[in-house]
Design goal:
By secondary structure, this protein is of the alpha+beta class. The chain has helices at about 25-40, 85-90, 135-145, and strands spanning about 40-45, 50-55, 60-65, 65-70, 75-80, 95-100, 100-105, 110-115, 120-125, 130. The chain has a single domain, classed as LytTr DNA-binding domain (OB fold (Dihydrolipoamide Acetyltransferase, E2P)). The model has no long low-confidence stretch (mean pLDDT about 85).
Length: about 150
């Protein structure tokens, strides 16, 4: 693979062009990585402030009372995006849907409690506990390789 950079002072925005003879798995992976790298901005509102949230700082994202919230070390933020939009936007290797109303950051999980009948308890590193809904248990087990 060759990498070429062209500097153009008239260019307002960075543009990436991939020239290839066919769409291979490597090309798809490259496109996926590039699109994820630049779409990882999440705007969160706390009181009268708007803050840009780094995805790695988020413990979980959940929907309640017709709103979507993100929990971080700094507190709970209201998001303007819908849960399904955030699920598409976030890196799949690090975030996973555990119910119709919640997505968790896999890097912020302390442990999984499999002792519950038909469901899985999830303890986050901030001490919060949440649960995988029965519908998502097979997907979680597949993602964890159990």
């Amino acid at each position: 693979m060759k990498i070429e950079i062209q500097l153009d002072p008239n260019q307002q925005e960075t543009k990436v062009i991939i020239v290839t003879d066919e769409i291979t798995e490597n090309v798809k992976e490259l496109m996926n990585r590039l699109s994820q790298e630049y779409s990882q901005v999440i705007a969160g509102f706390m009181q009268e402030r708007l803050e840009i949230l780094e995805p790695q700082s988020i413990y979980r994202i959940y929907a309640a009372n017709q709103k979507v919230f993100a929990v971080t070390d700094k507190g709970e933020y209201v998001l303007r995006s819908r849960l399904y939009e955030l699920e598409e936007q976030l890196v799949r290797e690090k975030f996973i849907r555990i119910s119709n109303s919640e997505i968790v950051n896999l890097t912020r999980i302390k442990n999984f409690d499999l002792s519950y009948a038909g469901t899985i308890g999830v303890t986050l590193t901030n001490g919060e506990t949440t649960f995988v809904s029965r519908r998502y248990v097979p997907k979680i087990k597949q993602a964890l390789g159990i």
